[in-house]
Design brief:
The protein has a single domain, classed as NAD(P)-binding Rossmann-like Domain (Rossmann fold, 3-Layer(aba) Sandwich). With 256 residues, it is of the alpha/beta class. The chain is built from eight helices and seven strands, in the order βαβαβαβαβαβααβα. Strands 3-2-1-4-5-6-7 form a seven-stranded parallel beta sheet, sandwiched between helices.
Length: 256
Amino acid sequence: MFTSIAGRSVVVTGGSKGIGRGIATAFARAGARVVVTGRDKASLETACNEIGGATSYVIGDVSLREDCDRMAATTIERHGGIDVLCANAGIFPAARLDQMTAADLNRVIATNLNGTVFAVQACLDALTTTGRGRVVVTSSITGPHTGYPGWSHYGASKAAQLGFVRTAALELAPRGITINAVLPGNIATEGLDGLGEDYLDAMTASIPQRRLGAVTDIGNAALFFATEEASYITGQTLVVDGGQVLPESLQALAEI
């Protein structure tokens, strides 16, 4: 049985939908006080109402340092501090190399990489004060382990997050803060809506478990990294993908 995290203060960036909402839900169900952030007020209100518990929101864009500072300050005002930061906010617009503009590249890097760094910086003092600070970064198998046409900028941003995590772990260790990353595979979220049954069937066929992951799978992984029992784990990555990165070929899948 893991030590309870009930009452702890948790920030989940990009927490209004998809994986972020799954993470926020996992912490809320564990009794934590959760602040979710995002850019759309209506989505944030809906998420908080449906997640329930001591869940509230702050409107903000993680690509803006001042918004991250306000996010942290507001959470501290509401909860008295911050115990856990889940740096989850990310975007994944498709753009192939022969069509990708500088704006396309900069937008993805600004949100996925810069937003992660800004969020950690904004919460750093509060995480230090608690004496048991936890940072959980949502990366991806795309970039660190796999690639997909149209997502070279996204993959680069997700791989870059892991470089950040490893060095940040060294700097944060003397402060009593751990930082780790969860790498989701194909997860059933709103982002898959409209892709069609054939696409989803092909995606599922590439996974040894023959199913898409659920947002709760990622939420549970993030929750583990936030526990007292994970206090000696830092700078590490946890792939949550149903075994998707394991087969060396399609034939390997055909053999199981």
